[in-house]
Amino acid sequence: MSTAVLENPGLGRKLSDFGQETSYIEDNCNQNGAISLIFSLKEEVGALAKVLRLFEENDINLTHIESRPSRLKKDEYEFFTHLDKRSLPALTNIIKILRHDIGATVHELSRDKKKDTVPWFPRTIQELDRFANQIL
Length: 136
What we know:
Elements (H helix, E strand, L loop, with lengths): L10 E5 L5 E5 L9 E8 L4 H11 L4 E8 L6 E8 L4 H15 L2 E5 L15 H11 L1
Antiparallel strand pairs: 1-2, 3-5, 3-6, 4-5
């Protein structure tokens, strides 16, 4: 088995604490405006082909795709995809079709957070104690 290092804008190199060069994957925080979508399909002939045809019919550009067997259901495969940001208008329709017509489990990943939200923070000693007891 041979290995190759491909030049990738998301792949960085740095020196470790011991002076050795190490590789790491940079956090791509929506580089180029990509949308991440995870869906799982039952293992059957042509299942992925149906989804890819659906993407093609709706002019959705896939920039990356990965697959793996599902850890939750033995007869399913999970697919992790990056979609081009220009695909956003058709995405809600695609997700609905994937869920209802094809029977896929779909998760849309986004780092876009509402700007008007405030993270929870303990306001009283009791809240801080409860948090410490549950987490620590």
